[in-house]
């Protein structure tokens, strides 16, 4: 009681006989030590990520754990899309349905024309003793999230190792090449978009076959062509397609269109800017192309089932067009 009476508390600090009482237990390390510990841990993780291969497995396991969270975070956007579809005006839906049917009819006509062109191309390649081209299996994928880092052009899709996705796999949307897979977890994958500053893809001009390297500019709607001589036959509006030289991207997929050319008299190379064909800022559905030789039979069956379903949808429209 005497000790309690001789002790007082001011501002949360206990005093006894005019001197502060030293706490019996420490509440944690000094903040400076915490900062040093975090710096050391971050440096080790960066070194391990660059030098040690087992970090890829660690990242894949962490992505697997985070996948349900990413799916939950994407639910509001999907809910808003569904709500806007439900609350849409009936007239708007009728007009959209009519436009889609007209587009389907146009595409069906192109498919019919493409069949004869494919047969003609096959006969010509046989005459030239060229290697026949094979169909490329594919699966569909949906967008989960976009990377919030303004210096990175990446996204996460809802397909992973369970679907046979592999690192380096090409990704396309309904218009053209979108990017490639850079990391895979069990249920999701990370895609490096073609507009990222660290991404490059070999392309060729569809008009004359000239080959270049298209490099991302770090902006959503811009790429650049490297080492284009001033006297090269490049025009604004030229379509760039994949050349297929590296073996990673199959040949013939649209990549970008030339948007701006500046020929500098004082330098040997021109400055060429191109705009990606893929709708990277709007697309939510993508195709993953299986270009490796070691393909599982299930992937072939999946692509064939998708083709059969598309033909069933297009058949009634073709019959109406013939009538």
Automatic annotation (TrEMBL):
Keywords, in A-Z order: Cell shape
UniProt domain Rod shape-determining protein MreC beta-barrel core: residue ranges: 147-288
Recorded GO CC terms: plasma membrane
One GO-annotated biological process of the protein: regulation of cell shape
Domain of life: Bacteria
Signal peptide: none
UniProt cross-references to Pfam families, sorted A to Z: MreC
NCBIfam families on file: mreC
Task performed by this protein: Involved in formation and maintenance of cell shape.
Family (UniProt): Belongs to the MreC family.
PANTHER family: CELL SHAPE-DETERMINING PROTEIN MREC
Protein name according to UniProt: Cell shape-determining protein MreC
Species for this entry: Kushneria indalinina DSM 14324
Phylogenetic classification of the source organism: Bacteria, Pseudomonadati, Pseudomonadota, Gammaproteobacteria, Oceanospirillales
């Amino acid at each position: 009681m005497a000790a309690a009476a001789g002790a007082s508390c001011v501002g949360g600090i206990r005093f006894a006989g005019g001197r502060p009482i030293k706490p019996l237990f420490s509440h944690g390390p000094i903040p400076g030590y915490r900062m040093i510990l975090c710096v050391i841990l971050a440096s080790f993780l960066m070194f391990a990520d660059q030098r040690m291969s087992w970090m890829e497995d660690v990242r894949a396991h962490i992505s697997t754990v985070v996948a349900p969270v990413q799916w939950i975070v994407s639910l509001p956007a999907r809910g808003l899309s569904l709500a806007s579809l439900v609350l849409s005006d009936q007239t708007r839906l009728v007009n959209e349905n009519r436009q889609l049917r007209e587009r389907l009819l146009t595409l069906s006509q192109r498919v019919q024309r493409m069949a004869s062109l494919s047969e003609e191309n096959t006969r010509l390649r046989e005459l030239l003793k060229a290697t026949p081209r094979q169909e490329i299996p594919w699966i569909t994928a949906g967008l989960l999230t976009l990377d919030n880092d303004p210096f990175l052009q990446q996204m996460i899709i809802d397909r992973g190792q369970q679907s046979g996705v592999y690192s380096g796999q090409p990704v396309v949307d309904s218009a053209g090449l979108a990017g490639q897979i850079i990391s895979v977890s069990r249920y999701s994958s990370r895609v490096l978009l073609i507009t990222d500053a660290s991404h490059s893809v070999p392309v060729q001009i569809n008009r004359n076959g000239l080959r270049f390297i298209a490099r991302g500019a770090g902006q959503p709607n811009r790429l650049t062509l490297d080492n284009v001589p001033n006297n090269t036959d490049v025009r604004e509006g030229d379509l760039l397609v994949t050349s297929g030289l590296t073996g990673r991207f199959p040949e013939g997929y649209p990549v970008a269109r030339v948007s701006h050319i500046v020929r500098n008299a004082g330098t040997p190379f021109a400055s060429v800017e191109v705009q990606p064909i893929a709708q990277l800022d709007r697309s939510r559905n993508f195709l993953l192309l299986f270009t490796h030789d070691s393909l599982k039979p299930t992937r072939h069956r999946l692509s064939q089932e998708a083709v059969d379903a598309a033909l069933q949808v297009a058949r009634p429209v073709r019959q109406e067009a013939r009538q």
